[in-house]
Each structure stands twice: as structure tokens, then as C-alpha cells.
Amino acid sequence: MKKKKRSFKYKNIFIVLFICALIAFGVIAFIPKKSQANKMIDLSNMNVEQIKEYAKEKGLKLTIKEKHHKEIAKGKIISQNIKKGVEIKKDDELIVIISLGKVDKNLYKKYKVDELGNVPIMMYHGIHNLKNDDTAYIGGNVDKSGYQRTAEAFRKDLEFYYQNNYQMIRLIDYVNGIIDVELGKSPIILTFDDGLKNNILVTGLDEEGNIIIDPNSAVGILESFKKKYPDFNVTATFFLNGELFGQPEYNEKIIKWLINNGYDIGNHSFSHSDFTTISSEKVEEEIGKLYNKLDKIIPDKYVNVVALPFGSPYNMDHPNFAHILKSTYNGVTYETISTLQVGWKSELSPFNKDFNPLFLKRIRAYDNLGEDFDIEYNFKLLEKTRYISDGDKDTIVIPKEKADSVYQDTQLEIIEY
Ligand SMILES: [Zn+2]
């Protein structure tokens, strides 16, 4: 009996010790939790109401977007822009994408989905801090040919693209056949040549050493649209020469800032040479030297795309063209996956069997009263020919009558309707 009693007593002590250990463990576990109070949590198992509550409690600016998804059920979370564990503070922007479930095929008809439609690649140069009335030319053109444009005209262009259901995508994604826009929306690509100061004018550094961007320069304007229309997916690719952005004290900071904020940098040759008037060795220097320069600032983070200075050569048969695409300069081998013309109209869908990424057409972003392939002219054409997305980047949805034009050797699922 005694023995039994004693073992019973030991058992009690053991239980008490176990409870103490549990409490201690709980307290320890609680301490780091408290210090993590301002870290983002995983929202994937919450519903919309709970997410709204959470955003309110943390003072986050919440945007909820809806998107069709072929695997994630309706009402469930597809993604959150701030990852779990990332430090959050009041007024941070939280974007949560919620699934609308699978796309109903009837919606293809309703939205006239056509992923073999054309894509506009807009060509800009300078954006000048002027009003349209300040220039001697029409429609916000600063020069006769409209290569240089006013800030007022650029804002108007962006508003026009957004109101006409365009969403921006990265040029490099387009080349690689990744078109991630919402159901019923069309992709648009922005490019800027020449690395002009007014593309991203830096007026100084803040206390933390970050660049301060002039709100009336191109990127300043783009950033304001990013805030105004989060679903515009603002991005652009800047094609630079050896002077980069012409701001020696800030060039490297600017380039790194652009890469970190969803923009891309490409090659416009080291000294803006006409590739048809120089030797093939000189072409290699012009291309390779610029790639090497970018490699020192943003290794592997620039795009291997060349915007052809003066749009030259005008065709791929020119003997120098091969040297733009692939060669070696100073012992470093380069490969260009795409070149851009000084074009006049929209380009084919990357899923069209005739798509040629090596020589892409662009639209000159200027105003000429709706004539001579200006913005108005081209977007009128696009009303009948534009790419219209099914909202799923992993499928190619096309009207049956276009079945012969689709590129077959793809990993993506092709759906005809
Ligand atoms: Zn140029």
C-alpha cells in the first residue's frame, strides 16, 4: 500500500512539474510572439471580413482584387503582396487577391477573349515638365516628330490606356510569353529610349540616402499612377546609352532603385550608333560595352534586349544584325534575346506562330490628330485586333477561327472556344 501511495505522490509531483513546464514554455513562446506583433501574418485561411478586420487593426491600406483561378476555390485567397514575416507599419499597402473560381466559358464570349490579339509596345523618349500649350506643336508634342512629349500629354496617355482597359506588363515577360492581366483586360508595354534626365530626374537624397524623384519626370508620373490605380500594374523598360541617366552622382542609385521597384533596364548601345554605318567589330563594342557596364551595377538584373538606335538596321538581313544578337566583347560573351524597332504599330501576340521576338515593332507614342500611326490611330485599330486576356497566364484562350495561327510548341494549355 505504502509503495503504491508513494508512487501516486510522485505521479502528482510529475504532473505539477509538467504543468509548470507547460506554463514556462507558454510564456517563452509568447515573448517572441509579442515582438512579432508587427510582422505580416499568413492570410490564406482567413475570409474577406477577417482580412478587413486585420488590416484595420494594423492600420494597413487594404486593396482587395478578384481574379479567376483554375485551382483555388471561389472566395479563397490567391495571394498577398506582403509576405508572411515581413515587418509592417501603419499605412503600408496590403493587396490581397481573392479567387473568383474557375472561368466560365461563357465569359470568354462576353469579354471577347482573344489571346492571339495584338499587343502595343509604346515608344517614348523624353517627358518634359511642360503644359501642352507651352509647346509650338499639337497634342503635347515638344518636337515636330513627337519623340519628346509634355508631362501633361504623358499623364493623358496613361489615363487613356487605363480607361481603355489596358494593364501594363513587363517587356521581358511579353517576350517570354508571360501575360498576366485580368479577365477582359489587354496588355500594354511602355519603353523609353535614350536615358534622358527627364525619364527619372533626381533632385537630391533624403535623410536615409534614398533618391528623391521629381514628380513631373516620367517615373515620378508613373509612380503617381501606381498609387492612383494599383491594378494598372505600372512598369516600363528604360533603354540606356553609356551616359546612363546623365546624372553621374545618382546614376547607380537610380538604376538600382528602378530594378527594385519593378522597372527594367535595357541596351540602347554605348554611344547611340547607327549599326548600319559602322563595322561589325564596332557593333560588338557598342553592344558589349553597355551590357558590361550594366553588369557592374546590376549583375544579371538588366534585360538582354536592344532598342535599335534610329531603328537601324531596318531589316534582319543586314550583316551587322547577327552581331547585335550574339558575340563577344572584351572577353565577355553576350546574347540579345530581342531587338526593338522604331516602329509604327502594334506587335503580334507571343502565342502567334509568326511571332518573332528578335525584331519587335513599337508604336510611337505621339499625337498627330489620329493620323500617321499616332496613338489614336493605333488604338482605333486595336479595338478590333487587340489581345484580350482570360485572366489566366497559364492558358492560351483563342476563338476557334484563329486555331491555325497559334504557336503549338508551348507548355501552356490551349483552349479554343
Ligand atoms: Zn535613341
Give a description of the structure.
This protein is of the alpha/beta class. The protein folds into 2 domains: 48-102, Trypsin Inhibitor V, Chain A, CATH 3.30.10.20; 109-416, Glycoside hydrolase/deacetylase (TIM Barrel, Alpha-Beta Barrel). It has helices spanning 2-35, 48-58, 105-111, 151-163, 171-175, 218-228, 251-260, 280-297, 321-325, 375-385; strands at residues 61-67, 77-80, 93-99, 121-124, 126-128, 148-150, 166-168, 186-193, 202-205, 211-213, 237-240, 264-267, 305-307, 326-329, 332-335, 338-340, 363-364, 395-398, 413-416. Strand 9 (202-205) and strand 10 (211-213) form a beta hairpin. The chain is globular, with a radius of gyration of 27 Å. 34% of the residues are buried. The model has no long low-confidence stretch (mean pLDDT 92). It binds zinc ion (ZN).
